[in-house]
Amino acid sequence: MSTEAPSTPQKINLRRPDIMEAVQAQVLSHYRSELVERIRANGNVVSAGGLTVKLAKEFGFCYGVERAIDLAYAARKVFPNQPIYILGEIIHNPEVNDQIRAMGIKSLSGKEKDADVDDLKKDDIVIIPAFGTEVATREKLQAKGCRFVDTTCGDVMSVWKRVRQYSNDRVTSIIHGKAWHEETKATSSQTTNRGGHYLVVFTLAETDYVCNFILKGGSKEEFLNKFKGAYSEGFDPDVHLQAIGVANQTTMLRGETEEVQRRLRNAMTEKYGTDKVEQHFRFFDTICGATQDRQDALEKLLRVPINLLLVIGGYNSSNTSHLAEMGEAKLPTYFIKNAAKMVSDKVIFHYNQHIGKEVETSDWLPSGNITVGITAGASCPNNLIEDTIRRLFELRGISVQDLLGAK
Fold it and tell me: Which positions bind dimethylallyl diphosphate (predicted)?
């Protein structure tokens, strides 16, 4: 029997070579794509029957996502008959999450919830998703004596380190992100756990509102109503905006985060003077490297002549939604979660993130010689990208065998 105190974290080490080798074949069988690998080897281009598909140089699964999935599969491999729970979606991709559920891993949140945290007991196994989890939830599970399979992404933990330092120094964390997103909630909790404060800003308009308040003051009641649900308990804009440090949800657009930082720094410089701004403002680049790689690759793809762009991924995936935003600014862009959304060459169902629902578009795929660009978020597996490529060519009457033989 364990003599450890219930509050002692109990992490399970599954990253032993023998375990990871055993699950690798299973993971590859679910998510690998020979077709995508062949297209990559062919310069990320495939053409047949007047249709050319160009893949962004970087797309799909990142290291953090692969690690999270590997650890979830490994947990089931090592504990084949024991109940395993997960705090939320392992990543923001419906097909991957369906696969996790199919392995009998029970969800503790969301529409597919199978149990509550209160139902868990000592030695139960709990997977922490790649986004991390809130400090209070982790502490509650530790107090119960649960064992953790922690798949939290290293880039997310780097942000946590930064906001904890802000809190230690009595600097308020201004987090550029979505206040309702699991990652941002987890990051926010890291500040309050150290007795600090935070404010989440999502848009540049919200950033400008904060800057205006810093410079001119205003109604505290109006401020708190505007940002309801996006600040720490006890947050007072008159007090807690005097020293601020910018951090971000790791999957935001780099250019937008940099603009948030620039505007806030300018406001603090105007208020306190250039010689004192360092006492009142801090910034650290916490954009995920994989997120940036995919944004940079799409930016390059958008410079070449293409007729339309397909963005593949979960509709609640932040990094995928930003790829769709980039495409929409340049050309017709369709954000789809899988190939089935391409009903025909006349009808496609795709996600409109501005209204938060799927919409139908007619006559979306032009006839004649066209080039279609494709990218995918960091949580999208290659098999779904393959399905999309195959479906595109099928809509032009080109068989899978012809496609596999295409040069």
Answer: 92, 181, 317-319, 379
Q: pTM for this one?
A: 0.85
For residue 319, what are the domain limits?
32-61+290-404
Residues 122 and 197 in one domain: no
**160 and 282 fall within a common domain:** yes
For the chain, residues with pLDDT lower than 70 are 1-11, 400-407
Answer yes or no: is 211 within a domain: yes
- For residues 77 and 113, membership in a common domain is answered with yes
Annotated binding site for isopentenyl diphosphate: 92, 181, 317-319, 379
Residues annotated in a binding site for dimethylallyl diphosphate:
92, 181, 317-319, 379
Do both 121 and 211 map to the same domain? Answer: no
Same domain, 301 and 379: yes
> Is there a single domain that holds both residue 299 and residue 309?
yes
Specify whether the CB–CB gap between 114 and 84 falls below 8 A. no
Is 71 found in the same domain as 56?
no
| Residues making up the binding site | 62, 92, 153, 181, 250, 288, 317-319, 379
Residue 183 annotated among the catalytic residues of the structure: yes
pLDDT tens track for 160-199? 999 999 999 999 999 999 999 999 999 999 999 989 999 9
In tens, the pLDDT along 325-376 reads 999 999 999 999 999 999 999 999 999 999 999 999 999 999 999 999 999 9
Which of 153, 171, 187 delimits the end of a domain?
153
Please identify which of the residues 58, 89, 134, 183 carries the catalytic annotation.
183
